[in-house]
């Protein structure tokens, strides 16, 4: 068979498949979403968990960073298409193939722009996740914990979760204690269920106590560069006490990190009372992680990208969490009434939020014995004495 005959039979190459050509009229940004906003507002809000107004604000922020240019052969994917597909991916955890079918964008392109949009979200929402830089800012956070949870001198609750992912090239480094491949999300949360600090990307193989020790937050505490308020006596006490972060048994007790007594350290009522007061306040960090995984279902399954891209995706979820929590229009869409744990200011009883009805899908840090420094032991004893007054 001659080469000329083969070339004659060969069909002309299509630069754009017919399926993708209908993106303008049948894709995720077509009349389908317009109809949802106009005719089914509840369905739209339950899908994206944000108001149309906040979606437009976010689009204006990220557009300059994700805008592509048309070529002679292809029309560029609009920033709105990119953002909507990315938000749906974060909210539902849909595969790239499923996203291709509803958006009429090739899964190859989706796999490229989703991490790019997530990176842009983190950049434009940088002011929504940050720790105070002044002593007065930390005192405001401590005052909120005192008023809402009766925990003076508390500047945040810390916890972490393993985020599952596919086996990376150097897979053994990411194999956690559950024998799954993961990266770690470490978060510091304030009294209003917002993240003050997030560290993502530590390989799951690293021991959970070392996750905190290798973070910028730990180094800042060790170097005294956080501008924390100076130690002062707890209410009704005379011994100056430092401002502290509260964690659990996955962390080591230190001057600025308080944790409950272990089972073997409880000798009577004072230790039990101390643990009760600390654990009651820890619902803020449990709620923050619980709502995060309930709203962004991509975190409840194995993320099918590299560790670097997975870290960017997880960070985007954290920044969107604070963005929606602090929004006047999206606050009650993201966390409607009854979704979070609530404390009765009179009786002190806690009503559990509806997020607890769903499996979080994220693995907690392993609780292991750790060496407690003498300075940390003394601080905990002073807090225990305060709780008994």
TrEMBL record:
Location within or outside the cell: Nucleus
One cellular-component annotation, GO: nucleus
Keywords from the named record: Hydrolase, Metal-binding, Nuclease, Nucleus
GO molecular function, one term: nuclease activity
Major localization listed first in the record, in broad terms: nucleus
Record-annotated DDE Tnp4 domain positions: 158-322
Cofactor(s) the protein needs: a divalent metal cation
Family listed: Belongs to the HARBI1 family.
Identification of the protein by name: Putative nuclease HARBI1
């Amino acid at each position: 068979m001659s080469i000329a005959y083969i070339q004659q039979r060969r069909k002309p190459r299509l630069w754009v498949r017919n399926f993708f050509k209908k993106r303008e009229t049948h894709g995720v940004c077509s009349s389908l979403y317009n109809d949802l906003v106009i005719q089914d507002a509840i369905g739209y809000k339950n899908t994206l968990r944000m108001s149309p107004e906040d979606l437009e604000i976010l689009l204006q922020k990220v557009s300059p960073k994700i805008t592509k240019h048309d070529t002679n052969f292809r029309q560029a994917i609009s920033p709105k298409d990119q953002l909507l597909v990315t938000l749906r991916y974060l909210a539902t955890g849909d595969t790239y193939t499923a996203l291709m079918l509803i958006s009429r964008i090739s899964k190859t392109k989706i796999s490229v722009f989703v991490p790019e949009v997530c990176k842009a979200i983190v950049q434009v929402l940088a002011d929504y996740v940050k720790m105070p830089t002044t002593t007065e800012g930390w005192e405001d956070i401590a005052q909120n914990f005192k008023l809402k949870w009766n925990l003076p001198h508390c500047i945040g609750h810390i916890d972490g979760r393993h985020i599952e992912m596919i086996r990376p090239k150097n897979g053994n480094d990411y194999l956690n204690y559950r024998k799954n491949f993961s990266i770690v999300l470490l978060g510091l949360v304030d009294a209003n269920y917002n993240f003050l600090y997030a560290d993502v990307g530590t390989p799951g193989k690293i021991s959970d106590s070392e996750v905190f020790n290798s973070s910028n937050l730990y180094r800042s505490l060790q170097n005294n560069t956080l501008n924390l308020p100076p130690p002062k006596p707890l209410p009704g006490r005379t011994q100056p006490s430092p401002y502290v972060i509260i964690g659990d048994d996955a962390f080591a007790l230190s001057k600025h990190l308080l944790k409950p007594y272990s089972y073997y350290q409880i000798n009577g009522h004072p230790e039990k009372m101390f643990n009760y007061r600390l654990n009651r306040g820890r619902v803020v960090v449990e709620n923050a992680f619980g709502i995060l995984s309930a709203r962004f279902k991509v975190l409840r399954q194995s993320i099918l990208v590299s560790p670097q891209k997975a870290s960017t995706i997880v960070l985007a979820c954290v920044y969107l969490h604070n963005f929606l929590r602090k929004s006047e229009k999206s606050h009650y869409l993201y966390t409607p009434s009854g979704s979070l744990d609530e404390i009765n200011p009179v009786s002190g009883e806690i009503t559990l939020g509806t997020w607890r009805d769903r499996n979080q899908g994220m693995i907690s840090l392993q609780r292991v014995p750790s060496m407690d420094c003498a300075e940390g032991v003394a601080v905990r004893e002073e807090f225990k004495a305060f709780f008994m007054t």
